[in-house]
Each structure stands twice: as structure tokens, then as C-alpha cells.
DNA sequence: ATCAAAATTGAACGAACGTCCTATTTTTAA
DNA sequence: TTAAAAATAGGACGTTCGTTCAATTTTGAT
């Protein structure tokens, strides 16, 4: 209790937990039913808090999605960097990424983001924020392929680095769409086979 | 004018054209904005026909989407079979497929179908119809890889045939999502590179 | 114990939604 | 030319939507 001079302005009445419950339920709903397909009433019912209270924590529906997408992506990046450090070769990192994506990448949420971004009625500011999101995983993929070329694991031209990362990301994203409908084991096999095809398809020495 | 005994019951007052205009515009809207994100008013505005008239041609919004998805897929199959006959090797067919998909595959529409199918409020009959749709392109992909194995172009186990087709389809579908946001040329390059990676990644002789 | 601040509710709003219904116009057959 | 049929428009319906707001309960500091 001594020395509480300044840091005491932290407000821990904890409606922080409420906020995170709302965020969690909203994320799942947006992922499963899309942005337009999810109503505030849905989020209210699922989270157990009133519609009005959702607006106490989030300015509006659009800002809620943006918040979710941003938070998801920044946490994704941190976690991947931690995982990535445990693997040495690009090939290993690629397999690790596939496994990581299956368990962490909330692609459907980013899809909801794309839904919002492609709506002409959406504010340019929101669009800009949402479009920047795809850059995070793309950069991570790019880094792996760049490493692979440097180590000689992969035989890619400089110009193919970006596009290969893009294609790998597209495939990862596509597979994630089946997260809610397929069982984990066969889906994991598909993730692994994806990596195998890419590794074989671009390996050095032609 | 002679011999009009029976086939005369064909009604060609041609509101058939109207129907197809509505269908066309609705398909583009569902593709771009999703099912929930597209209103009947949107379709009315875009097609130039009144809201009420849309219900003259289609029972309701859900049936309209099902009709579009079904029609799109059956026409897709016919056209592909016609194109496919012009190419001899599995590798050639794969490149042809990528090009064909970019110009014909209305993947976003099937995504809208998935959106509807995953909604618990959707009738089981509709769900069943929509879920069967993905089978059409999957079978076409499967046939190509099967051919490739038979000719020795590809080195795949029997058990990998289905999954490889599935992965190729996932990648094609993912790339189609960029049809509305990317320019045609760079997108075509991505389609081609996809095929290259697959062909190299699974070719015979290891 | 008291009181201001924070958290939370529930009702109310206008707008937009899917659908339906009644005209009105256009087409076809007689 | 006329009358039935088909095509089309436009508005009315009940509902649901996102959002706001005044009222209430809970919390933290004094």
C-alpha cells in the first residue's frame, strides 16, 4: 500500500471481463455468420449482456469488428514469432506455420473484415485499417520463403517471393474456412500436404 | 408456321430475359456483398425491376440464391467439359482449368451458399442442395489428377488423389476471392504460378 | 454511511428489411 | 377489337435492425 503515488489510476472495477466476453462471443459470431449476418441482438444473447451495454464498450458494430480484427492479428503475430524461433530451416518453419495457422489463424474473422471493407458504405478509415490486416500474415509467409531461398532450400527468383507467399497464404486461408465444418485430424492432414506440395514445388536445383 | 401441333406451349413472351437480368445482377451482388449483405432492394435497384417483380420470378430470397448456385454450377460443368476436351495432358488441363476458373468460376457465389447453409435457420432441404454444389468442381479436379497419375505425369498415391484435388480447389477458390479487387493480369499470373507449384510439387519420379 | 462514478439494463427510435397484395400496363389468343 | 393472361410497378405490412437514452444498480473512495 506504500508508494501508490501514480499507478493507482488503473481502474479495475472489471468490466474488463465483460468487455472481453462480448469480444469473444462477437468474434465467434462474426466468424461463423459474417458481419451482416450477425446482429447486435445475436451478440447480446450470446454474451448475456444487454444490447445497450454493448454500446457502452464499443462505439458501434463496425468499430467492434475493427477492434476484433486488429487485436486478433497483433496477437497472432506475437505468437507466431515466438513459435517460429523454435525452428531453424524454412521447411520446418513452413510445417510449423501450417500447424500454427490451423490453431491460431482466425481467418473467418478477417473474411468478415473483407466483407466490411468491400462495402462502399464503409468509411475509408475503416477500410484502410482492415486492408492493412492482411499484410501481417503475408509478411510472415514472405519471411519464410525468403529464408528458404537464402539457405538454398527453395529455388525461387526474387520476383517470385511475394507471389509465393501470397499463394501460400491464400491456401492457408482457404483451409481455415473448413475449421468449423471439418474434424481436426483430416484437416491437419490437408495442411501438411499443402506444405509438402509447396516445398516440393519450389525446391532448389529444379 | 406449319406443324405447330404441340411444341407451341413454349411461352416466349420473354420475361425470360427479365428473369435472367435479375439472376445476373443478383449473382454479382451476392458474390460481392454476401447473402445477408444483399437486400432485395439492392437487387431491384441494380436490375431495374421492382421489388415486387422479383417475387414474381422467385419464391423468396433463399430460393433465388439456391437457383443461382445450382444454375451456375451446372453451366460451369458443361463449359469445362467442352474446354477440357481440347487438351491432352493432365498438365495442360490443369493450366486450362486455372484459366477457366478465373473466367468462369463464381466461387464467391458458392461462398454465399455456404453462408446460407451454415445458418441454423435455413431449411434442411436448402442446406442439402447447397452442400452438394462443391462436389461438381471437386470431381473435375479429381479427374485431372487421376489422369495425371495414369499418364505418369504426376506421382501420387491413390489415397492422395482426393486430397490433392481438394487442395487445388481450395487454392482456386481462394484466388477467386480476389476477382473483384485485383486486376486481371497479375491475378492470372497467380493462377498460373499455382499450377506450376502443384505440377512441380507432385510430379512423377520424385 | 454517503455519494459520485462506473456498469448495466430495457425500452424506444427511425430506418431498412423480406414479403405480400393490389393495381396497372403489356402481351397473346380469339 | 377484345378479353384473358402474363408481366410489372409500387406501396403497405409486420419484423428486425443498429443505435440512443434515460433510469437503475453496482462499485470505489471518502
TrEMBL record, chains A, B:
DNA-binding region(s), residue ranges: 39-58
Pfam families assigned to the protein according to its UniProt record, in alphabetical order: TetR_C_5, TetR_N
Keyword Transcription regulation: no
Highest taxon of source: Bacteria
HTH tetR-type domain location: 16-76
InterPro entries on file: Homeodomain-like_sf, HTH-type_TetR-like_transc_reg, HTH_TetR, Tet_transcr_reg_TetR-rel_C_sf, Tscrpt_reg_QacR_C
Record keywords: DNA-binding
Name this protein carries in UniProt: HTH-type transcriptional regulator QacR
Organism: Paenibacillus auburnensis
Upper lineage: Bacteria, Bacillati, Bacillota, Bacilli, Bacillales
Recorded name of the encoding gene: qacR_1
Amino acid at each position: 500500500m506504500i508508494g501508490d503515488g501514480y499507478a493507482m489510476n488503473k481502474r479495475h472495477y472489471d468490466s474488463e471481463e465483460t468487455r472481453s466476453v462480448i469480444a469473444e462471443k462477437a468474434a465467434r459470431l462474426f466468424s461463423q455468420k459474417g458481419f451482416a449476418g450477425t446482429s447486435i441482438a445475436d451478440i447480446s444473447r450470446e454474451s448475456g449482456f444487454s444490447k445497450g451495454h454493448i454500446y457502452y464498450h464499443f462505439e458501434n458494430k463496425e468499430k467492434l469488428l475493427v477492434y476484433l480484427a486488429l487485436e486478433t492479428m497483433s496477437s497472432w503475430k506475437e505468437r507466431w514469432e515466438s513459435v517460429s524461433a523454435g525452428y531453424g530451416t524454412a521447411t520446418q518453419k513452413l510445417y510449423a506455420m501450417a500447424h500454427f495457422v490451423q490453431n491460431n489463424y482466425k481467418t473467418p474473422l478477417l473474411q468478415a473484415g473483407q466483407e466490411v471493407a468491400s462495402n462502399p458504405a464503409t468509411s475509408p478509415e475503416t477500410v484502410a485499417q482492415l486492408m492493412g490486416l492482411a499484410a501481417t500474415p503475408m509478411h510472415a509467409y514472405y519471411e519464410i520463403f525468403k529464408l528458404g531461398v537464402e539457405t538454398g532450400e527453395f529455388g525461387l527468383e526474387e520476383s517470385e517471393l511475394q507471389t509465393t507467399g501470397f499463394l501460400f497464404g491464400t491456401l492457408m486461408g482457404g483451409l481455415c474456412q473448413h475449421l468449423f465444418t471439418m474434424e481436426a485430424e483430416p484437416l491437419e492432414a490437408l495442411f501438411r500436404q499443402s506444405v509438402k506440395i509447396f516445398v516440393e514445388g519450389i525446391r532448389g536445383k529444379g
